[in-house]
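Q: For a teaching session next week I want to show students how multiple molecules come together into a single three-dimensional assembly. I've collected the sequence lines for a complex. Could you give me the predicted C-alpha cells for the whole thing so I can convert them for display?
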Amino acid sequence: MRLVAGIDCGSGFTKAVLVAKNDSPDFSVLGKGRAKSGINMEEAARTALQAALDDAGLGRDRIHYIATTGFGRYGVGFRDIQITEITSGARGAHYLFPNSRCVLDIGGQSTRAITMGVSGKVRTFKTNDKCAAGSGMFIVRAAKYLEISIEDVGRLSLQATNPQPISSVCAVLAESEIINHVSAGVSVENILRGIHDSLADRAVGMLKRVGMEGEVTLIGGVALQAGIVKALQEKLGAKVNVAPDCDYVCALGAALLGHKRLAMKENLASMQQVS
Amino acid sequence: MRIAAGVDVGSTQTKAVLMTENGGRTILARALVDTGANVRKAAENAFQLACHNAEIPPTDVGFVVGTGYGRYNISFGNAQLTEISCHARGAHFVCPSTRTVIDMGGQDAKAISVGSDGQVLDFVMNDKCAAGTGRFLANAADVMGIGLDEIGPLSQRAARPVRIATVCTVFVESDILSYLAQGKKGEDIMAGVHLAIAKRTLSLARRVPIEPDITMTGGVARNIGMVRALEEVLGTKMQVSPDAHFMGAIGAAVFALEKMDQSFEFSTWRPEHAAGSGH
Amino acid sequence: MGEAKHTEYRGSIHQRQKELMLKWYERLNEAAETGTPPTASLMISGNCIELLEAFGAVPIYPEVNALQLAIRHQSLEPILAAEEMGYAPDSCAYVKADIGCYLKGITPTSGKLPKPDLVLCNFVGCNTYVKWFEHTAELTGSKLYVLDVPFLREQDPSQADIDYVIRQLKEVVTLLEQITGRKFDYDRFVEAVRCSAQVEELWSQIKHLARRSPSPFDAYFDAITLMGPLYVYRATPEGVEFFSAALEEMQARVAAHQGVYDQEKFRLVIEGPPPYPYFRTFRDMFAKWKACTVASTYSTVGGLWEFGARHDPDHPFESVALHMLSQNVTNRNYLQRYEQIRRYLEEWNADGLVIHFVKSCRLFSAGQGDMRDYVTKTLGIPTLYIESDLEDPRYFAEAQTRNRIDAFFETLEHSKLTAKAV
Amino acid sequence: MLTFERTFEQCQELITDLSFERVHRWKNQHPDSKVIGYFPVYAPAEIIHAADMLPVGLNGGGDRLDIQYADARFGSFICSIIKTTLELGLTEHLKVFDGILFSSICDSARNLCFVMKRNFPDLYVDFLHLPHNPSSTASVDFLTSEYRRLIQELERIGGKQITDAGLQRAIALYNRNRQLIRSLYTFRAQMPHLLRAWESYVLVRAGNFMPVEEHNSLLEESLEQLPQRSGKPRDSIRIVVEGAFCEQPPLDLIKLVEDAGCYLVDDDFVIGQSWFVEDVPVDGDPVHALAESYVNRSVYSSVRHDFRAPRWEGLVDKVKRSRADAVLFLIAKFCEPAYFDYVLFKKQLEKLGVPHLLLEFEEKQFTFDRVRTEVETFVESLVFD
Ligand SMILES: Nc1ncnc2c1ncn2[C@@H]1O[C@H](COP(=O)(O)OP(=O)(O)O)[C@@H](O)[C@H]1O
Ligand SMILES: Nc1ncnc2c1ncn2[C@@H]1O[C@H](COP(=O)(O)OP(=O)(O)O)[C@@H](O)[C@H]1O
Ligand code: SF4
Ligand code: SF4
Ligand code: SF4
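A: Of course. Below is the structure for the complete assembly, covering every listed component.
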C-alpha cells in the first residue's frame, strides 16, 4: 500500500488528509485532521497530520510521500512537493465529482473560480487578489457581530423570508452595512441570506469570467454554509455539488497529485535499475 | 445655567459630551460606550451616562447636537451635523491654534483644513475601504493576540520596522503571519503596520494643505504608535489632547451652545433634520 | 427630501427634446430595417456631423446610447456581459455597456440599432475612443476610419495640424461617397455648417444667461438634458429651431426672475461627467442645499462656444477642422481646462467647484487631484472632490457621497455666515 | 573588458538608481549639453542625440520609491508609473533634467504631461502627437512637421543647430543599437538557459541612462561573452510576455515567473528601445525618414493604432516565431490600452488554442505570494496531466 498525505495550509485552518492506494486503480481516504494555522505553519501541519494519522490509526512511518498546498505550502519543511491550492482544489473536486468542469473555492480570504479539463487539470482560473471583499472572513465577522456562532449561519440563512442585499462587501466594514439593517429591524435570517446572496453574486460573476460550463462544484470552508449553496443554485439555476468534507478538498487533491508524483518517481527509479 | 450636549455616534464607539456656558464654555462630563448593533440605544445610553456623570437630569440639557457615522441610521438630538464640521470645531475649541485636523476613527480617516475661527476650509476622507483605519489596527492586534492598547507601546520598541505591502485589512493578516513565521519580532511588525497606515493616511491627507498646528482626533489618537508614526512621516509634532477621542462630540456640543445663545445658526437645522429622539 | 422634487426646470423644450431624440431613434430603427438612411458611428466630442449631414447620413452616438441606458438603471447587465468577455473591471464602462448591449441585443428604445455603414472614429483626445471603435468594427465587421486629430498641445492649433485634419476629412468624404453611393453635396455641407454656427450662437447665449442670479436653469443637470439635440441636430434646421425656442424660454424666466430654486443659496461650477446611474439621487443631494450649477465643463464635451468660437460657412472644411482640434473640452489640454474653470468661477461668479471623479474616464479624471490643488491653493476657492462612475452603478456609495456633500455645504455656509459676522 | 557578470551588476545598479547618478556624471562631463527625459513608450531619441543632448528613458520609480505626494494629485484608478514619475519630480529627483517629452500613448500620460508643465515651470515639457492614422497619406507629412517643431524647440533650449548629417549619424547609431538588442533577443530565444529574461531586460533598459555609443559597445561585449556562460537547460515552458510596454514590472516579478518554470522567450519590456522592426533609412531627408519609419516600420503596440492589419497579428507572429507554448499577459494595473487589447488578443489566442494567463502588476509591488500561486498554477496546468 502506498500512503500519501496531502496538507492544505490555509489562512485560517490547516487540513490534512491521508490517501492510500493499493494495486487496484482506485484510492481510499484513510483519515483526516485539522489544526488552527496560526503563526507556525510547520507546527500546524504537523498537528493536523498527526490528527489525521490518529484518525486513521496509523503511525507516521507509514507515510511514503507528503504534498503540501495552500498559502503556507512553502512553510512546511518536511514536504516532498508543494502544489498550489488551485491545482489541488481542482484535482480534489474532479475526484469527488468526475463530471464537474468548474470549481468555486470560497475560503477565509480568497475566492477562486476554476475551470478544468476532463482529467481535472486546470484550464482557466480567477482569484481575488487585491481585495478580500466577499470572502469567508466577511461572514465570520458578520456572525461575530450578530452574536451567533459560525456553525449556525447556514441554517439561519435558509430560514430567510425576504433577504436584504448588502452592497459593500468589504470583509472588514461588514458592520457598517449590517448596522443599517439591524437598526431598520431586519431579521438576522434575512441579513445573513442577504450576505450570502451578495457573495453568490460576486462568485457567479467570477465563474462567468472564467467561462463557466457544466456542473459547478463548491469547495472551501464557506461551502459548509447551506445558505450560500442555496443562493448559488438560485443564481445559477442549476444544482451545485458540495462534498461532505468541502474544506478538505484541497488537501485531498494534493494527496492525489502526490500519488502521481510518487508513481512517476518509482517508475524512473525502476527504469534506472533495469538499465 | 445653560447646558448643551454633543453626541458622536461613531461606527465603533459612541461619545457624548455635556458642556455648559457660564462665562467661558467648559466640559461638564464625558461618556464613551461601544456602538454595537443598536445605534439608537448606544446614542441614548451615552447621553444618559454623560448626564449621570454630570449628576444632572437629562431634562436640564437645553439642546443636543448629534453627529458621527450613526447620523445616517438615526437622527439623534435636536439637530445633526457632519462629523467633519464637528471635529474641526472640537479641535478648534480644545487647541485654537489648530489649522489641520487629522481624524482617524474606527473605519475612516479624514484630514480637515481649519480656519482661524474653527470653520472647515477643506477636507478629504477615506471611507470606502477599511484599509488604514482603526479597524485595520484592531485587526492587527487580534492577529498578534494582544490588546488594542498594547500595540502602540509595543511598536515603540521596534529596531527595524518591516515593510508592509498590502493595505487590505484582511490580507495584512497573512502578511503579519508570514513575517512572524520568518521569525520577525512583534514590535518590528507592528511598527511596520503603523508606518504603512501613516503613509497611506498622509498621502490622502496631502490633498488638503497641511499646515501647523496639526491636531489629531479620533480614537486612534489614543494609540501612541500611530501618533509617532504620523509625526515621523509628517516630520513635525502634532497636538494630541487627552480629549482627542471626544473631539467630534465636543464640537457638536459647542455648536449646540452657539445655537442656544443664537450666536450661530445653520440652515440645515430644519425640522426634517431635527426629528430628534433625545428627550 | 420634500423640496427636491420641484427643483428641476421642466419647460416645453424638455418635451420637444424628448420628441427629437425619439425621432432620431426612429430614423436609426428605419435604417436598421431598410438600410436607409446611411449611418455612421461617431463620437460626441469634436464630431464632424456636418459631413454626415452632407450625405443625409444619420449619426450613431454610442455614448448617448450608453448614458441613456445608465439613466434607466439598465447599464449593469451589459457591463457584466462585457466583463465576462474579458473586459477589465477598471476600463471605461461606456465601452463595456455599449459592447455588452451589442452582445445582448439591447437598445435604449424598443427599436433596433443599425449596423453602421462606417465606423468613423473622430479621435479627439480620448484614446479609449480608438479602442472602442476598433472593437466595434471588429464585432460588426463595419469599415473603420480613424480620423486622427492632433491633441491641442499648444495654445492654438498649428497650420500643420489643420492641414492634417482637412486632408483626412477629404479622405472621409471619398470614403462616404464609396460607401453610401451618394455624391458629396457641397452646398448641403455649407448649409449644415451654417446651421451649426447658429446653434452654437444660441447655445452660447443660453449658457451666458446662467451668469444672472438667480440662474434660470442648472448648467449641469438641466444642460445635460438639452445636450442630446445638440449632438444629433446641431447641423440641422430642427436644431436651430429647438435652440431658438430654448433661448426664448430661458430669457422669459430671466425676465420673471425665476431661478431653479425658490431661493438660490449657492452657485457652483461642476467638473466631470455625472453619475448617470444615480442622476436623480445625485441631483437631489445638491437640491437639498438649493445649490445651482452655473457652469460645467462636461457640457462643453460637444463643443466649447461660450468664449466665441463658431463654425464658419465661409470656410467650411477649415472650421470643421478647427472645431475638432480646439473647440471641445476633450481635445484641449489639461491646463486649458484649468483656465476654462477659472473663467467660469470668476465670470459666472460661483462659490465653489465640485470635482466629480469618474473611474471610467481617465481623460476627465487623471490629474483632478492636481486640479483641486490649483483651485484651492492657487485660486483659493473651496472645492469638493467626490468619486463614483458615469455608467457603472457599482461605484456609487450613497451614504459617503451625501456625507461629503453635506459637509461641503456646511463649510460654505459657515464661511458665508462668518464672513457676514465680521 | 569587464566580465559579463560585472557589466550586468553595473547595469542593475543603473536601472534602480533613483538619483540618476550616471546622468549627473554625464552632465558634469558635458557642461554645455542638456538632458532630455522621455516618458514611455517611444520617442525619437535620434533627434535628441543630434541636438548633442542625452536622451534618458524615464521608467517610473520602481519599488524603491514610496508615493507620498503624487497620490494627492492623481487619484485612484490611475496606473503607478504616472504617480511615481510625478513623485520623482515633486521630490526633486528630476533636477538633472532640462526637459521631458511625452507622447500620445494614453489619456493618463497625456494629462500628466500638462500637470508636470504646471508644477515644474522651469522644465521644458513637451507633448508629441504621434499619428494614429497611418492609413492616411497625410500622416507622414504631419509627423515630419511635428518632428520639425521638436527640432526647433530643442535648438531653442540647447542653442545648437541640428544638422541632417548629425541626424543621419544618430540614426545609424540607433539602428545599430536596435540590431544589437534584436540579436540579444534572438540569442535568448535560442539559449534561454544562458541568458535569463530579467538579465536581458536589465541590459537593454540600462541603455536608457547612457549615451547610445556606450550602450552599443556594452551590448557587443555582452554578446561576445554570453556563449561562454555555463548553465544547463531546464524543462521549462516557453512563454511570450505581452503588455508590459510602459510601466515596467518589478525585477523580482520577472525572476519569479522564470523560477516558477518558464522560459520567457520574448517580451515587450521597454519596447521603445527597439521600436523599429527594420533599420531607419540613413539616406535622404533624415527627419522624413524617422517620420516615415514610425508610420511604416514600427513594431505592433497597444499605444500605436494601425488598422492596415489586425492588431493581434503582431502577437500571433511573435508566438509562432519564438515557438512559445503560452502567452503571459503582464499588465500594469489600470493600464487601459493593455486592458482593451487583452480582449482581442485573448479571443485570437483561444481560437488558436494557445494557453494564456493574465497577471496585473504594479511597479511598486514587493510581495508576490498571490502572484506566485497564480503563476505556479499556470505552469502546473501545463505540465501536470
Ligand atoms: N463550521 C463552519 N460553519 C460554517 N462556515 C465555516 C465553518 N468553518 C469555517 N467556515 C467558513 O469557512 C471559511 C474558511 O474557509 P477555509 O477554506 O478553511 O479558508 P482557508 O483555506 O483560507 O483557511 C471561514 O472564513 C468561514 O467563513
Ligand atoms: N485605548 C485605545 N488604544 C488604542 N486605540 C484605541 C483605543 N480606543 C479606541 N481605539 C481606536 O479607536 C477606534 C475607534 O475610534 P472612533 O473615533 O471612536 O471611531 P468611530 O468614531 O468611527 O467609532 C478603534 O477602532 C480603535 O482602533
Ligand atoms: S479593507 Fe475591505 S475593501 Fe479594503 S481591500 Fe480589504 S476587503 Fe477590500
Ligand atoms: S474614457 Fe471618458 S471620454 Fe473616453 S469614452 Fe470613456 S467616458 Fe468617454
Ligand atoms: S502604463 Fe498604461 S496607462 Fe499607464 S501611462 Fe503607460 S500606457 Fe498609460
